Amino acid sequence: MSYEELMKAVLDVVFGSNPSGPSVVCTLYKNLAGSLAPQSISDEYEGMLDRGSMTSTELGIAVADHGLNATNIYLVGLAQTGIEYVVYG
Predict the structure, then answer these.
(1) pTM for the complete prediction?
(2) Chain-centre distance of CA 79, in angstroms?
(3) Contact at 8 Å (CB) between 25 and 55?
(4) What does the pLDDT look like over 50-81, one tens digit per residue?
(5) Does residue 32 contact residue 66 with C-beta atoms inside 8 Å?
(6) Distance CA 76, CA 80 (A)
(7) How far apart are CA 8 and CA 48, in angstroms?
(8) How far apart are CA 55 and CA 45, in angstroms?
């Protein structure tokens, strides 16, 4: 499965197959920045999604690849220590 296919599948599970621009932008911004998106950001990205100049998959990838996301998940530290594996069940 490609990165794009995986992102689309995840977004479909979270938002449904035809998500609204406001719900996608609000959720992704809050998860990335930890706060609500300023109105100007909301308007810009919701407009791009509504016009079809950007898909929710493309926005999700842009957010996932953003440097702030790497900081939020402590990517540098993970490279040093790894992720603890916990057996499920």
Answers:
(1) 0.75
(2) 21
(3) no
(4) 999 999 999 999 998 887 776 666 555 666 67
(5) yes
(6) 7
(7) 17
(8) 10
